[in-house]
Amino acid sequence: MKLLEDRIREEGEIIGDDIVKVDMFLNHRIDIELLCEIGKEFRRLFAGEKINKILTIEASGIGIACVAAQYFNVPVVFAKKGVNRNVGTDLYTGEVFSFTKNQKTDIGISKKYLTAEDRVLIIDDFIANGEAVKGLIGLCDQAGAEVKGIGICVEKGFQPGGKELREMGYHVESLAIVKSIENGVITFG
Amino acid sequence: MKLLEDRIREEGEIIGDDIVKVDMFLNHRIDIELLCEIGKEFRRLFAGEKINKILTIEASGIGIACVAAQYFNVPVVFAKKGVNRNVGTDLYTGEVFSFTKNQKTDIGISKKYLTAEDRVLIIDDFIANGEAVKGLIGLCDQAGAEVKGIGICVEKGFQPGGKELREMGYHVESLAIVKSIENGVITFG
């Protein structure tokens, strides 16, 4: 998606050779016009999948998922962090390892809001190692819900998450794939 | 807002005499059509305030704020939780006490995204004691930003947050004010 690549190139803050921060328009300050264009693009890319629910994880996925959901006319459900197996039996739960924070987080979702009737589109802002998305797939598996698509804004193509999920057969669409960051220059793939 | 009151009455899950859960349409599973109507109503209520930024706090405020922001044509910034004063000098920080969780949480926002030029609308899903909103006002005060409005979906009218903020002179608009919950019956005020 050229619009998103341009914004990353123009405004993204590069740190070293593997981090590009986009918190000026995507995940701290949020540019709503851009989010609408992202939502429309997800709708176009997953038009054939008969999505009936969008699933994301708190916090930065929520805004993207909610704006996109308008174009699909479906509800959003977000997995909560810090919810562990001890909370009760009415939750599907899992664990997500964050390489950024170097720690595990428990995630959970109410069984009422994810069921075997669901054709799910998972949406998130970033994918690197794919831990968050794999955690969400785990919740869908427990519910018997079908994962019909995975829509990512920015994929770090030099980390394995996106590639692994495609090899597992999932329909993954990343709107911008960062192939490399070298000497302050981003190359998209 | 009759639409929201009706949904709370029809679907809200009452627990004891002081809790009504609305996680089936507002803050776990999110009904996007309802969110759009909420966004339009906030736009109508704050039309005169020349809002140029919407501020909220993760996690459940983000979806509401992002959908509403489309009707204002302004960006959203959300305060992050678990960000403390030690992170750096480029943040405005504060503390929010959660009565539900009986614990304090550090909140923070990048100084780049909240400035003295901002005319801020604070949006959140619930107000009870008003701790989260007061925390966000504190961040605005540090930035020299003006708080021109506070838009809340559900106010617990039997707890003091909304009343205190109105008495402090803030323009508070709650779309549904729960006056009381008695024997499983909700009365709106």
What does this entry look like structurally?
The structure is a homodimer of 189-residue chains. Chain A has 189 residues and is an alpha/beta fold. Chain A has a single domain (2-188), classed as Rossmann fold (3-Layer(aba) Sandwich), CATH 3.40.50.2020. In chain A, 30% of the residues lie in helices and 37% in strands. The first copy, chain A, contains 5 helices and 11 strands, in the order αβββαβαββββαβαββ. In chain A, the strands form 2 sheets. An 8-stranded mixed sheet of chain A has the order 6-7-5-4-8-9-10-11, sandwiched between helices. Chain A has a two-stranded antiparallel sheet with strand order 1-2. Chain A is globular. The model of chain A has no long low-confidence stretch (mean pLDDT 95). The interface between A and B is medium-sized, with 31 and 30 residues.
Helices and strands, with pairings:
Two copies of one chain form a homodimer.
Chain A: H1 2-11, E1 13-15, E2 19-21, E3 29-30, H2 32-45, E4 53-57, H3 61-72, E5 76-81, E6 91-98, E7 103-110, E8 119-127, H4 131-143, E9 146-156, H5 161-167, E10 172-182, E11 185-188
Parallel strand pairs in A: 4-5, 4-8, 8-9, 9-10
Antiparallel strand pairs in A: 1-2, 5-7, 6-7, 10-11
Helix pairs in contact in A: 2-3
